[in-house]
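Below sits the subject:
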Amino acid sequence: MTTTRLREEARADLWWVDLGSVNCYLVEDGDDLVLVDAGTPRSADDIARAIREAGHAVDDVARILVTHYDADHVGALGKLGVDAPVYLGREDAVVLAGQQTPDWRNHKGLLQRLVQPLVVAPGVPIRPVDDGDEVGGFTVYRAPGHSPGHVVYLGGDVAFLGDLVREKDGRLEPSPWHLSHDTDEVRRSIRALADRVPDFEVAAMGHGTPIVANGGDRFRELAARL
């Protein structure tokens, strides 16, 4: 696990927490510390250490923004000991809350079902979000495809893109078929998002190295290739 400060501004620090196979992020939203995504079921200790390395205590986390339901993005929620609400796209929120199970007829849904026993219920409020909702200083953009309830959070100059895209060798790529609920929908979401969102500098994705400059341009270049 490594923690890297991507940006340092007054009251707006941003940290990339590289958990090895997946990323999560810490960002200061005004006076609040926000955790974006929550790693695997084995990530809780690493995330807690990253919070301390960033100069905070675990109890400082005011809210958790989750881009989508997957075991490597919600896995540590039930083990962090954070008393903070979790925000998640509506279609994925019902799965995290145990009100619905993933569709086994879809290859992605079947995989989610197989690993679902590893995910411990977070024991904190789960707050579903929809397109256009505001959560602190971030706007929610619905971006389904990788999962039915996948969302992107955009605030200031940073976009938390989750697994809608991934970075490989300095290039953005759409979520691949074997990891996505619907790759056609992934592409539609990328193209629609490129047209809708304001410009941003930092493209912070779930897998790969974050792009810290001209992230919006790189994202629109990807959309133009699809």
